[in-house]
What we know:
It is built from six helices and 13 strands. The chain is α/β, with parallel strands linked by helices and 209 residues long. Helix 1 (11-21) runs antiparallel to helix 2 (27-45) and helix 2 (27-45) crosses helix 3. The termini are far apart.
Amino acid sequence: MSGKVVVFDHPLISHKLALIRDENTGTKQFRETVSEIGMLMAYEVTRDLPTLNIDVKTPCGIAHTRTLAKDVVLVPILRAGLGMVEGIMALIPTAKVGHVGMYRDEETLEPHLYYAKFPKTITESTVLVVDPMLATGGSVDFTIGLLKERGIKDIRYVGLVGAPEGVARIQKNHPDVDIYLAALDDHLNENGYIVPGLGDCGDRIFGTK
């Protein structure tokens, strides 16, 4: 099985992405817009979730309908991934949330794990790994590997902006994982940041720079 790469071209997503790319957008609007993009993306990311046929008694009869076949678990990569969680959960309020915390070595750009906590049902769930920026791909690659070590098979990555280098890394190391992005940008600079990108997403969400 080969994972797909989906880059959204929805007008609302494009409009909101332009807002968060703008260096003059303040923390409040940036945070709210990141969340809104997460919600819009989640609608398409979950389009092919497995369902079960069920019968529901309505006030007027029996409806033959469908319900989700398994849980959805969001796994944001701390801390920037938290910015997309609220928007996605607005669409999937029953979703459970795990967390992966890591920091990036400024010299090697490779990730180092300091925290991992997952719901007990995660192995049987559809898991959305959430991280706004797919730059070198190191953090996402590491997180997906961490999940696979726990026996999780249904994994999808959801992000805002990706670089070709990050996409290529995930496709090479995890060809079974679908990649969903709001935009695919040009390249990485010498510091491992996406160009043109939108800067440090975590700093802009939480106002720390």
